[in-house]
Amino acid sequence: MFIFVIHSGSVPVPGEISLADHGVLFLDELPEFDRRVLEALREPLETGHVDVSRARHRARFPARFQLVAAMNPCPCGHLGDTRGRCRCTPEQVARYRGKLSGPLLDRLDLVLEVPALSAAELRSAQPGEASQPVRARVVQARERALARQGRPNAALAGEALREHCVVDAAAGDMLARAVDRLGLSARGHDRVLRVARTLADLAGEAAIGRAQVAEAVQYRRALAERR
């Protein structure tokens, strides 16, 4: 799969990320994509569009999509298995994870590790929450954001970010420690604030508290450990 497709002539045409505009772009086995393809995601993840230039033509295509990606913890997929099935060396694991550049990872908001379940855990698993109540909470949270600032939390930047993502003293101290300990960039700092603002909206809280900042930082911690 290519991030953008160029016609056999010299005229740029939209590709996968523009076709996913206002939708979801899912990339499975993320490190297996060509590095140039992955790096091409950086601009649209930041700006919501992609610019393609050719000798006689220049085009801008919309590309405001939600990126969802999945990857194994190592080349064989068994790293961390309690049965010791992984035979990957530390160098192989580092090389595998190193296919994802720091600037690309910095543009991700949430990173979740999903451990393998035992047979007993699979048998005893309880039904999860239905989609309908989850959707209702998401809709309510989005409506709170739009009523407060006229745009989704993901679109907050600059003065708007500082105005609508104010944290109390305790939460601010926690975020400052996280920036130093995890080595967060300015982009990472702002993404933590936007995620914390969304968590507060989901909880129906008017202010961002320590609990929301802690949860948002946890999502960045997993990201920092992968570098």
From TrEMBL:
Highest taxon of the lineage: Bacteria
Domain annotation Magnesium chelatase ChlI-like catalytic: ranges: 6-121
Stored Pfam families: Mg_chelatase, Mg_chelatase_C
Coiled coil: none
A GO molecular-function annotation: ATP binding
Domain Mg chelatase-related protein C-terminal: 128-220
Keywords: ATP-binding, Nucleotide-binding
Keyword ATP-binding: yes
Classification via InterPro entries: CHLI-like, Mg_chelat-rel_C, Mg_chelatse_chII-like_cat_dom, P-loop_NTPase
Name of the featured protein: ATP-binding protein
